[in-house]
Amino acid sequence: MDSQQLHDVVKNSVFDAAAALDITFPTWENNVDLNELNIRCIKRCILGQLYGSWGKTPYRRFPHMSGFNADSVGQLGARYEITDLYHQFWKKEINHRIRNAK
What we know:
Largest sheet: none
Distance between the termini: 38 Å
Number of domains: 1
Number of helices: 3
Helix content: 40-55%
Order of helices and strands: HHH
Radius of gyration: 13 Å
Mean pLDDT: 82
Structural class: mainly alpha
Number of strands: 0
Low-confidence stretches: 73-77
């Protein structure tokens, strides 16, 4: 998989995961501190900030929800490259939502 394909996979999985959060946790984006966001940390990732820990969320039962778990697409490239892309796209998604809510 080339870097553009990886970019598209990560972008789409973040979009899908954000849509799932819209259903289960309305206005979730207002509860995420971007300064604390760390996709590699189960307490500071998106779900960690919303639920206290990735392990306390309803999404842990759905490993296919790769927008929440970069390890689930680990076969697509280097782990740090993937988590950096997830971090980048989550920040873009949250900033976009906050800007458009005003």
